[in-house]
Amino acid sequence: MWFFEKQPNNDLGDVDVGEKISAYRKSSYPQMKELIFKNKRKHTQSYRTKYAMEWDIKDFTIVAIENRGRYLANAFYDKVLELLE
């Protein structure tokens, strides 16, 4: 998710995940807020669970990463539709 950030968050380098999450918590980008905070994510938790779009921020299993991607793709698609209206 470094590509959503400006300095200094994208040059944290090879640091512990906890340190990166701490830095990202300070972000003003909506995408970062959605990644870090469940209550900032679009759709209800039951909807996200039903469509495999829910994850825990510290879970880096293949399934969790796929769920993040699915959520971001859905959010991107919704935004494109909104812009086309």
List keywords for this structure.
85 residues, mainly alpha, 2 domains, 4 helices, 52% helix, 0% strand, globular
Task: Describe the overall structure.
- This protein has 85 residues and is mainly α.
- It has 2 domains: 1-40, no CATH class; 43-85.
- It has 4 helices and no strands.
- The chain has helices at residues 17-24, 30-36, 45-50, 62-84.
- The longest helix is centred in the last third of the chain and has 23 residues, at 62-84.
- The termini are far apart.
- The model has no long low-confidence stretch (mean pLDDT 79).
Low-confidence stretches: none
Please, how many helices? 4
**Count of DSSP strands:** 0
Share in helix: 40-55%
Shape summary: globular
Indicate the mean pLDDT.
79
What is the domain total for the residues? 2
Distance between the termini: 28 Å
